[in-house]
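Folding problem:
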Amino acid sequence: MTRFLLPLAVFVVLVGFLLVGLGLNPRQVPSPLVGKPAPEFQLQQLHEPEKTLTSKENLGKVWLLNVWASWCVSCRQEHPVLVELSKSGIVPVYGLNYKDQRDDALRWLQQFGDPYAVSAVDPEGRTGIEFGVYGVPETYVIDKNGVIRYKQIGPVTVEALQNKILPLVRELQG
């Protein structure tokens, strides 16, 4: 009798793990950096390569870091949302142009609009790796102390902006 119950018990446990796994949202991959200081960086600016953007420049303010690329299809989906957010002036949006060609990135921003206060260039993706980028687009909410408070994996949607990002930004600005 036990020789039938043991395989049945193993099967039930495996089915339980499968059901739990299917219920998880792949867009909600936990980031080990949430609640920790954002990685320090000093990168060339996209529009003015002779200038740099550093992570320390934004200490004292709440800001968003949006990781994007001209070759990213999903970045086109979120771009109008970021353009409107930028126009609102609620929170500054900085770009991290990830593994892209400068000319392609500049052309893309000229074509679709530039929502970024400044966009920095990460041609090899090293800074992206330090931020734990899984793929573009990703957006980080960073507080006045330089601590990552939220990570949006995938495109920023109107819903994500209204339900998660902006309420958090307002709370952190308060």
Notes: Residues 35-173 form a domain with the Glutaredoxin fold (CATH 3.40.30.10).
